[in-house]
C-alpha cells in the first residue's frame, strides 16, 4: 500500500472516530441534563433556580464528557508519540505500547457501559414519569424494572422507526 492511501485511510479512520465520539458525547450530555432536570423538578425549586442549576450541570457535563472523550480518542496518538520519542526502547516505550493496545479495549468497555447506562436512564425516565409504569411490577428491584422498561422502550422505538422508514420508502417510490 502506498503512503498516500495509508494517509487517506488514517484520515478516514480518524474522522470516523471523531464522529462517533461526538455522537457519544452528545448522548451522554443529554442523559446527564435529563437526570439533573428530573432532580430539580422533583425538588420543586423556583423556576430560576431550576434554570441556573440545569444550565450549570449541562455546562460542566458537556465540558467534562467532551474532555474525557477527547483524551480517550487521543490516547493512541499519545502512545505513538511516546514510542517514537523513546525510539521504541525502555519504560516510556512500554507505556506507549500499553496506551495503543488499551484503546480498543477501553472503547469496547465504554460502549457496553454506555449502552447499559442509556437503557437504565431511559427506563428510569419511563418508570418515574409514567404513573402506570411506576406502579407496575412493585415487587421488582428498581434497577431491574428500569432496565426492562428501557429495553422494551428501545425495542419499541426501533420498531416504530423501522416501520416508519419502510412506509416512507414505499411512499417515495410512488
Estimated structural class? mainly alpha
The total strand number stands at: 0
- Average pLDDT rating: 85
Radius of gyration: 22 Å
Instruction: Please write the string of helix (H) and strand (E) elements.
Output: HHHHHH
Q: What's the helix count?
A: 6
Overall spatial form: extended
Taking pLDDT < 50 over at least 5 consecutive residues as the criterion, the unreliable ranges are: none
User: What is the end-to-end distance?
Assistant: 45 Å
Question: What is the helical fraction, as a range of percent?
Answer: over 70%
Biggest sheet record: none
Q: Which percent band covers the strand fraction?
A: under 5%
Can you put this structure into words, describing what you see?
This protein is mainly alpha-helical and 174 residues long. Helix content is 89%, strand content 0%. It is built from 6 helices and no strands. The protein has helices at residues 3-42, 47-73, 75-85, 90-129, 131-135, 142-173. The longest helix has 40 residues, at 3-42. It is extended. The relative contact order is 0.07.
Amino acid at each position: 500500500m502506498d503512503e498516500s492511501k495509508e494517509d487517506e485511510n488514517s484520515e478516514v479512520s480518524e474522522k470516523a472516530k471523531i464522529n462517533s465520539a461526538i455522537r457519544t458525547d452528545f448522548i451522554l450530555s443529554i442523559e446527564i441534563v435529563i437526570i439533573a432536570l428530573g432532580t430539580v423538578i422533583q425538588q420543586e425549586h423556583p423556576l430560576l433556580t431550576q434554570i441556573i442549576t440545569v444550565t450549570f450541570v449541562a455546562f460542566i457535563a458537556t465540558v467534562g464528557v467532551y474532555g474525557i472523550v477527547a483524551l480517550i480518542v487521543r490516547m493512541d496518538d499519545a502512545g505513538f508519540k511516546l514510542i517514537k520519542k523513546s525510539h521504541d526502547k525502555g519504560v516510556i516505550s512500554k507505556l506507549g505500547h500499553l496506551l495503543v493496545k488499551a484503546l480498543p479495549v477501553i472503547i469496547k468497555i465504554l460502549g457496553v457501559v454506555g449502552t447499559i447506562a442509556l437503557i437504565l436512564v431511559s427506563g428510569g425516565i419511563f418508570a418515574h414519569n409514567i404513573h402506570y409504569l411506576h406502579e407496575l411490577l412493585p415487587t421488582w428491584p428498581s434497577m431491574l424494572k428500569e432496565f426492562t422498561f428501557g429495553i422494551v422502550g428501545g425495542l419499541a422505538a426501533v420498531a416504530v422507526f423501522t416501520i416508519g422508514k419502510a412506509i416512507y420508502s414505499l411512499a417515495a417510490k410512488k
